Amino acid sequence: MQLLGSTTSPFVRRIRIWALLNHCELEFINLDIFAAHDRQLMIKNNPARKVPVLICKQHTLADSNNIIRFLLELYNHPRLSWQQEHLLSTINGCNDSLVELLLCQRSGFDTTQDKLFFNLQNERIAETLSYLNNHLADAEFKSCEYLCISLYCLLDWICFRELTDLTAHTELMEFYHSFAQQQAVQQTDPRN
Ligand SMILES: N[C@@H](CCC(=O)N[C@@H](CS)C(=O)NCC(=O)O)C(=O)O
To answer: Where is the GST N-terminal domain (predicted)?
Structure first.
């Protein structure tokens, strides 16, 4: 199986860490998705023009949510419960808004301006981080490996890109530091 992605994408990193922790052999194809040649490979496999993309004998699958569902089934792991899916959507909502804002900044917009689009993203980021901080101790959260991986990838990406101050979220910070010790985390560090 091949995984098209980039080392910096938090959505790609989730899949890479899960695969490392679960002895799932993935050939990681590291792309610069904004460079012409690499972009062609991504576009050829995903009309939505995003990474990650998983390519295997049966399927070409885009979107980390589909990829993890496929891998969990393939490796006979239980699927996420509905509450866990809800928590994953909360992590995704935060991550998507941060990606949108970063792309706006890279397009030359001042995202601190009082504009509907920026306000909606900023409100979503603040609310989802508070929600995750308050629900991190829930049994359904702590017991789900993929949720913990996805949260860690979000938090580390926020730190890596210096996107927002996390220090007020004490539960998230404690989790972030404890999860960071794992080998799979260090092996997929975008700073390396
Ligand atoms: N819902 C998607 C989001 C993936 C995503 O946003 N990927 C970013 C990289 S972090 C991307 O490919 N962005 C390219 C673009 O927006 O043009 C998933 O879970 O895989």
So the answer is: 1-79
